[in-house]
Design brief:
There is one protein chain. 14% of the residues lie in helices and 36% in strands. 49% of the residues are buried. By secondary structure, the protein is mainly beta.
Length: 874
């Protein structure tokens, strides 16, 4: 008998306190808005056991790659609180075999990595989350001598060489987790990630057959050890490879209980094709979308995104939807680590604010129920989509997505049965995704009482929106102010808290021993520390919901001890180059620092001046102060991660902040002074004071002005400053895919590509090594936009354009300034770059938006754009 567990809600989901809500909205409000109807058919069942919305998790935060950058127990407290807030229904937890098995057949279930892994399982067990154990994956260097498939080129991504041993390993781990440690929420098992690609499963030529045999060996070992009924096996975790799913169904259908695939950024209509392709191979077996993602830095759009993925999946018989991914963990590679817009939040060592995805995906994750029945729905118009769920307790939840355009009144009507319960309303649009350190899900915005088994929401605006209407209680949340603060040892900080979607008193507590104290009013008294320490403070409701504040406790000045170093720049993620200065309050003291994570000593590198944080660099600065006759200070640390977003004219690099010192360089150079596209230029020799006076005035009063140096003196200064006009940032050697912002705002299906990218451009970039690309497929287009500052005048835009020659059709591109079409490019099929100049246009002084828009929708078409300039039109 296979186990089927339903995760129990944590105490934070207590009964809704109606008094805290906006007054109930009227059942049928008169309005001139567009009228839309969603009909939920209570007697029509589309699927009986929708597992819910979950996440993918790489459990590295408590391990070396992240802990080495200062991640600590106070950060873990915040991570756990967020897991309990969103309550993922299923978590695909990635697992490396070298965490437990350094030598073949010898298992260490008490290794540091395993202890960290258990803490993740504890958190998911507390949240009522079922676990899909993703066994195998990256192959740590410590096991290369026995694990690898013979002759692989990439050992880190090798398939197992000994499938029998691999089966024993999987069985041993499951026995430890389920039988010895009681993790009864480990219900599902899968292997590797996207084995159809070359990035995670390198093995023999016939990789499909090898993957199927690998799964069979695990299946047989679990049978032999009496564990097979404890877990269901999923696979093959393919992406864009339905032939892999078909192969597994035909050749290992007795092994796989459920099938899984991945999909990113596809259109609502294309999803049906993707589902149907796989369903035709697997019949009625459960099909899971075990990775899905939408990387827009804002939120989803009508064409593709989280709500329409869920609606299409639930109505189409997909068994679960797992978001990529919960949170970032690695921080050492700004271009290739796990932080970014795919995540619900980045690693907390980079800051507490979540991404926009947290608010959107988190709201869906929390309120779409686990193991629910999906009910049939009908919509009155094609600018509305819907799906509906009934959980094991009979609670009803309706998800409605509306397109942007005219404001709408949406009536939700129930047919085939009687419904009397009140529905709580949760609404999401772009305005909700405003990152804040408490990471609070959107609160309830009212209740609906039904009249004749229907209610009408008259508050849906004209923006793209989704609304969740549910009879389940609202999630009680606690907001703390400040969520993050710094205080010297022995000093106090006054914390405040408020309850959202709930009422009652709060209890204050400090997490961990020796971390200070907090009184009943939220006043925290910090402990005395020799080196800085992070402390987590909880404010908890009677029902068990809580919020977490972090306080960084720094060493207080002490007699006989040098004052601890102070950094000029707050830690965290920065889009562009920055500079850090380090000071100490002790006169004559030296500052010694490290960047490798080690504790600095009197022999460490001597600080001599501003440290430049360069693009695509993560720097962990740790410093002490050393003075004659005094004990060295305690250690203070700051982590900085810098991306490659251009904030200077092309060819110029940051050298100094305004009014903070000298922009230093040797010989003659051009220097730009200003910010936000407003610059003054000058040619100087052997440095210049970074002040407005040096440049004859301030081009952007009140702006974050800086100096940028260019060792090459340009022939002429730009008429209009376009950031990243040559598309050299980010400095990818392949492709950097949108959505992203780097000077330009790149939509999905747009980005930057290198001369050696997978697009295989027929000719090199006209300027530098990279160009923009604009791609259309699945009926979706792409675009790039940049808002720049023009002086009043008449101008034209010049650029180069080419088509991808080795694949797809011809792409044509429109050029706009604001809403005015000023140019069009239709490159030929040779792949050669052609020079283009738009028609002239006249603008007033101020901000104007330049846009390049792909216009060819049929098929798969990619065009390239480079070296964009604004010239004065004659």
């Amino acid at each position: 008998m296979r186990r089927r567990r339903i995760g129990t809600a944590i105490a934070a989901t207590t009964a809704l306190a109606v008094g805290t809500l906006v007054p109930a909205l009227p059942a049928f409000a008169a309005s001139t808005d567009a009228q839309r109807t969603v009909t939920v058919n209570l007697d029509e069942v589309l699927q009986e056991d929708y597992l819910g919305i979950g996440v993918n998790v790489i459990p590295w935060s408590l391990m070396g790659d992240t802990a080495a950058y200062g991640y600590d127990d106070a950060d873990w407290e915040v991570d756990v609180e967020r897991i309990l807030t969103v309550q993922p229904k299923v978590a695909r937890v990635w697992f490396q075999i070298d965490w437990m098995e350094l030598e073949k057949g010898q298992y260490d279930f008490e290794s540091p990595e395993m202890k960290a892994f258990y803490r993740y399982l504890d958190a998911f067990q507390q949240a009522g989350t079922e676990v899909l154990l993703n066994f195998g994956w990256k192959v740590g260097e410590r096991v290369h001598d026995w694990f690898l498939y013979p002759g692989v080129q990439k050992p880190y991504e090798s398939a197992p060489g000994d499938l029998v041993a691999y089966g024993h390993s999987a069985s041993a781990l499951l026995n430890e987790l389920i039988n010895n440690r009681g993790y009864d929420n480990v219900d599902y098992l899968t292997f590797y990630n996207e084995p159809n690609g070359s990035w995670d499963f390198e093995g023999p030529a016939d990789q499909k057959a090898y993957y199927a045999e690998m799964a069979r060996k695990v299946h047989e070992q679990l049978q032999a050890d009496g564990l097979r009924d404890d877990v269901q096996i999923w696979g093959p975790e393919e992406v864009n490879a339905p032939d892999w799913t078909k192969y597994m169904a035909e050749n290992a259908g007795d092994v796989f209980d459920q099938y899984s695939f991945h999909l990113y950024g596809e259109s609502y209509d294309f999803m049906s094709q993707a589902i149907d392709q796989r369903r035709s191979s697997i019949g009625d077996a459960p099909l899971n979308l075990s990775e899905m993602g939408w990387t827009n830095p804002g939120t989803s759009v009508w064409e593709t995104g989280y709500p329409n993925y869920i609606i299409r999946s639930a109505n189409g018989g997909v068994h679960s939807n797992l978001v990529w991914q919960l949170n970032g963990v690695m921080t050492d590679d700004p271009r290739g680590d796990t932080n970014g817009s795919f995540n619900m939040w980045d690693s907390l060592v980079l800051g507490l604010k979540p991404t926009a995805a947290f608010y959107e995906a988190g709201l869906l994750m929390r309120y779409i129920p686990a193991h629910s029945t999906v009910l049939g729905t009908e919509v009155s118009d094609d600018d509305v989509r819907a799906t509906a769920f009934r959980d094991a307790d009979g609670e009803l939840t309706v998800l409605v997505e509306t397109a942007d355009g005219r404001p709408k009144d949406v009536t939700v009507r129930f047919a085939g049965g009687k419904v009397n319960d009140r529905f709580n309303r949760f609404v999401f649009d772009d305005s909700v995704a405003q990152p804040e350190a408490n990471a609070l899900l959107p609160a309830s915005t009212g209740q609906f009482a039904l009249k004749k088994s229907a209610f009408t929401d008259a508050e849906i605006g004209g923006a793209h929106t989704f609304a969740i209407y549910t009879t389940a209680p609202a999630e009680t949340q606690v907001a703390l102010t400040p969520a993050q603060s710094t205080v010297a040892g022995g000093a106090q900080v006054d914390l405040d808290a408020s309850i959202i979607d709930g009422t009652g008193k709060l209890t204050w507590s400090v997490v961990g021993e020796g971390n200070g104290s907090v009184d009943a009013n939220g006043v925290f008294t910090a402990p005395a520390v020799e080196s800085e320490r992070s402390v987590a403070i909880r404010a908890t409701t009677k029902s068990g919901a809580y919020g977490v504040a972090q306080v960084l406790v720094t060493p207080a000045p002490r007699a006989g001890v040098a004052d601890a170093p102070v950094f000029s720049l707050e830690p965290g993620l920065y889009p562009s180059v920055e500079g850090v200065t380090i000071t100490t309050g002790t006169p004559g003291a030296e500052i010694r620092y490290t960047t490798d994570g080690s504790s600095p000593t009197a022999e460490s590198t001597l600080y001599t001046g501003q440290i430049i944080l360069n693009p695509l660099q993560t720097t962990y600065l740790r410093a002490i102060a050393v003075a004659p006759g005094l004990e060295p200070s305690g250690v203070t640390s700051r982590l900085y991660k810098v991306l490659d977003v251009q904030n200077a004219p092309d060819g110029y690099e940051f050298c100094q902040y305004a009014d903070r010192g000298t922009c230093e360089f040797d010989g003659e150079a051009s220097v730009a002074f200003g910010s936000e596209g407003l610059f003054r230029f000058g040619t100087f020799t052997d440095g210049v004071d970074c002040t407005a006076a040096s440049f004859g005035g301030d081009p952007n009063p009140g702006g974050d002005n800086r100096c940028f140096v260019n060792p090459e003196i340009p022939d002429e200064e730009p008429v209009v400053t376009i950031f990243n006009a040559g598309f050299e940032s980010p400095a990818t050697n392949g492709t950097a895919n949108g959505p992203m912002v780097n000077g330009w705002t790149f939509s999905a299906r747009a980005g930057i590509q290198h001369n050696d990218s997978v697009f295989n451009p027929a000719f090199p970039a006209p300027e530098g090594e990279r160009t923009a690309y604009l791609k259309t497929d699945s009926g979706l287009n792409s675009r790039i936009d940049q808002t720049v500052i023009f002086p009043a005048g008449t101008y034209a835009i010049t650029f180069y354009a080419a088509n991808r020659a080795d694949f797809g059709g011809l792409q044509e591109i429109d050029v706009f300034v604001d809403d005015q079409l000023v140019g069009h490019a239709a490159p030929d099929d040779s792949g050669a770059y052609e020079f283009h100049q738009t028609n002239s246009f006249t603008v007033e002084s101020g901000q104007h938006t330049i846009s390049f828009v792909a216009t060819t929708f049929e098929g798969d078409n990619t065009g390239f754009v480079d070296d964009v300039k604004v010239i004065v039109a004659e």
